[in-house]
Amino acid sequence: MPLELVTIPCLKDNYAYLLHDAASGEAALVDAPEAAPILAALAERGWALHQILLTHHHPDHVDGVAALVAATGARVLGAAADAHRLPPLDRALSDGDTVEVAGSLGHVIDVSGHTMGHIAFHFPADAVVFTADSLMALGCGRLFEGPPDTMWRSLTRLAGLPGETTVCSGHEYTLGNARFALTIEPANPALQARAAAVQAARSEGRPTVPSRLSEELATNPFLRAHLPALKAALGMEGASDVEVFAEIRRRKDVF
Ligand code: ZN
Ligand code: FE
Questions:
Q1: Ligand 2 centre and the CA of 24: distance in Å?
Q2: Which domains occur in the chain, in start order?
Q3: Which ligand has the minimum distance to the alpha carbon of residue 142?
Q4: Helix crossing, 65-72 with 36-45: angle to 10°?
Q5: 134: CA distance to ligand 2 center in Å?
Q6: CA nearest 99: which of 116, 74, 135?
Q7: Distance between CA atoms of 140 and 85, rounded to whole angstroms?
Q8: Among 128, 182, 191, 204, whose Cα sits 20 to 30 Å from the Cα of 87?
Q9: Is the pLDDT of residue 1 over 80?
C-alpha cells in the first residue's frame, strides 16, 4: 500500500513532508521547522499525526516539535548520536535501523557531513528518501560538522539507491544551486535543461522539490565528483574523488 506524500513549505525556504496511509489514517512527519503550517495541513485533510521523524538537530528542522507533540501526542524519533541536542526522543535511531509508517518500512541511513549524526530515511517500497540537508536538489548541505570525505561517503550511499527514488530534501535552494552547477559543468545538456525548468518553476512560485535521484545523478555536481569529465572540467584529472568533491564544495561556499 503506497504512502501518500505531501510537501509542506515552512519558514522562509524549508520543507517538511507528511507521509499518510489512507487505510489506517496514520500520518508521519519528516522534520518540523515550525508547527503552524503542519497543523494546518493535517487539519485540512483530517489526518492524525502519529510520528515525527527528525533528520538532524538544526533549529530550522526541529523548532516545531514541542508544539506538534503538545497538539497531537506524536512520538518523536531521531538519531541516537544527536539525542543530546534534539528534542526529547521516544526512540533513538542508528544506521541500519528501520522505522515503520503504517506497515511501510523506512531504512535509517547515516548521512553525516552537514552535521555529524544527520540521518536519512529511505522507504524502498515507496521509492522515496528523505535527505534534508545531506543530498539536496542540485546541491548538498554545507559541511558544518563533517569533513569532506564523510559527506562524500554519505552522498555516495544515497547515489546508490534506485534511480527512480524520489528525493525529498530540506530546502528550496535549487535556483542558486543551478546557477552554481552551471559554473562547474556549463556544457552538461541535462543540467542546462534542468536549470531552465527550475527557473521556470520558481518564476511561477512552484517548488522544485522533491526531485528524482536519476536527475540528481545526471545534473548535481556534488554527486558527479568521481566522473572523469567533471575532473577534467576542473583541471583536476589526477585528483581523488574526495578532493574533487571538496573543491566543488569550497567553490560553492564562496559562490
Ligand atoms: Zn541543517
Ligand atoms: Fe536546514
A1: 31
A2: 4-253 (3.60.15.10)
A3: 1
A4: 30
A5: 9
A6: 74
A7: 22
A8: 128
A9: no
